[in-house]
Structures are given as structure tokens and as C-alpha cells.
Amino acid sequence: MFVAKVIGNVWATRKHPGLKGATMLLVKPLGADGKPAGEAQLAIDGQGAGVGDTVLIVDEGGSARKILKNSKAPVRTVIAGIVDKVHITGKD
Amino acid sequence: MKQAKVIGRVFCSRQCCGMESKTLLLIQPLDWETDKPAGDPLVAGDTVGAGAGETVFFVASREAIVAFEGWEGETAAKAAPPPVDAAIVGIIDGKKLG
Known about the structure:
The complex is a heterodimer of chains A (92) and B (98).
Chain A: E1 2-11, E2 24-29, E3 41-45, E4 54-59, H1 61-68, E5 77-82
Parallel strand pairs in A: 3-5
Antiparallel strand pairs in A: 1-2, 1-4, 2-3, 4-5
Chain B: E1 2-10, E2 24-30, E3 42-46, E4 55-60, H1 62-68, E5 86-91, E6 94-97
Parallel strand pairs in B: 3-5
Antiparallel strand pairs in B: 1-2, 1-4, 2-3, 4-5
């Protein structure tokens, strides 16, 4: 899992039946210092997150399908939670 | 899932088990934020009937096979999923950043 920031959203009417009704958000992984680090990815929203939120991403198919309660969803990247605070020992 | 542009199609007269009826499209992965090509073109199985020039998003590795596995709603007997490692699962209508 990794922490990421929601930077946008994508909509698509013609998509795989397993993604029916899924909200698709663009997320950018955050480094330990909280700054964006890495490539943006498309994640399926499982928690009602919005643009600008900091979220927790699960990046594995089996867990993703469990979160979405949909054994046919061809997805790996799913938003599993909305992060309130990241505390790093020795800082603030 | 990554963004990609469909740049061509691959036709094989002889194919491995289960791939016969699947459309194989040549796609160029694009970066989500800059829409610039990111990485080399690859061949992906198509599940949504994407056409040349369309912007799509695709899944890789295990999820590509999940995308082809049988679907409750389907009545026809479903052949075994093809041994693919990338599958197009949607055609992007629009995208908003920021």
C-alpha cells in the first residue's frame, strides 16, 4: 500500500463490465516527505474520495477485488482509505 | 491502470491457445499528466472494442486475464481466458486534472 494524493478524475462510458459504476480517480504517490514522487496512476475509488484528498492505495488485485466486493473487477489499484494524518517519528 | 493511445493492430494467423478470437491492438502508453509517450508500445487484448487513434486505459499482468474471464451476465459458453499480459478495459471520454 502507499499514500497518494488525488490529482484528478477520468470518466469513460465504454468500459469493462467489471468497472460498471466505478469512480475513477487519478492519484499521484507521495514520498515520505509528503511531496509527490512517482508516476500518476488511475485508481478505482472505494471510499468516496475527492480531488485534493490524501488517500491510501492498495496496489494488488486480490485485495482490490475484496475492497470493491466484485470478483470480476479487472483492477489492481484501489483507494482503500482517506488519510487524515501521517506522523513520522522524529519529526514535528 | 495506465493511459494509452491505440496506434495499430496485430494480426496472427497462428496463435497460442485461446487467443484466436481476441482482437490484439498495438498501443503506446502515455503519461497521465503530460499525455506524452511513456515507455515502449505494447500489444494488448481488447475487451471494449477500441478503434485506432482512441485514447484508452489498460491493465497489466494478472488483471489482464481477469478482464477476459467469464462474466455472470454472459450466456454463451466462455472459452478459457487467453494468456495475455495486458488488456484494454476502457475508452477515456474525458479527464480533468487539478
